[in-house]
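Q: Sequence in, structure out?
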Amino acid sequence: MVVVWTAEHNILVYLEDSVAQLLEHREENPKVNAQKYLTEYFSALRDGNHTMFREYSFVRATSHNRASFVHLFWSSFKQIGERGDLLSIKEYHSLVQLLCPDFPFDVLQKTARIVLMDDALDCLIGFSDFLYAFQAQFYYEEFLNKATEIYKSLQQSQSSPRETVVVPSSTDDQPNVKRKSPPQSQDSVDSSLFFRMLYQTCDRAEFSVPSVDVLKELLDMPQVTYYSFLMFVAKSQRINEAIGRLPKKDELFEGLNRESSTSSIHLNSSKGNLVEPSADTTEPQQQKRPNGSVIKTGKGVISTLHRLRSAGRREITIHSPGRSSCSERTSDDSDGSTTD
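A: Exactly. Output:
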């Protein structure tokens, strides 16, 4: 069988990375079997488990990596959603950093703006709302950045004064009165014009973009605000199916109660533990990466978050694979001070 690779498969990215990982691993273990190592590497790549504990530059390098990382986050922490826990965006960032320690906070801030208004970014967010918004923001990051530019340019172009119209008076002896036509809302733009400009972007884009048919369906209305557009993209089941890594929203937690554990991470390596398993943690499942690190899933993160919440803590920051720190904010910290 002949396999034809195209540019969209990013095979050069993975060939270079696999060799670099092999050479790095050989420095620690000179007796490593190169053939076995590369077989495990590409098996993990095929199964979508290859982004675990990798640096952010690799996680975002390809669309396959991005989709795989979103799926990894869901499979690792979905018990949070099943329990109905609401977390702040900083707490979600801490969970993301358990899988990718250098994952930047600004991606999570943009995710929060899809779910929340700008003046409510400190509010708590449900797991499913965050998950699909995170998928849209991370997977289509370049497209959404371009859409933001287009939307702002349309807003500026429609802010010019409107043409006046002649309104007939109620009586014949009064002159006609000139009145300005009512202006469009400054928070919305013409949907058809917005779509045409997005279509031009999608036609020549070298990054991941939604289907033009889907965009046309989402913008089938006279006016649209940018906040609404972001929500449409995040909640679109057709977009979710096109990415192909998350189930439907109503199937997000199916079968969770039958799983032994699905939500905390314990790194078994020379660097130490990320999160200590709680006493009630069931026997975890293990997944191995080619570099020998092991991920164990259990209930530690859930228990940790609940202990922090009960103590009044709201913010968790993971600085590195071997260290973590929590800043405490209680309900009566009116001056905004923190206590370590």
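The two ends are 60 Å apart (CA to CA).
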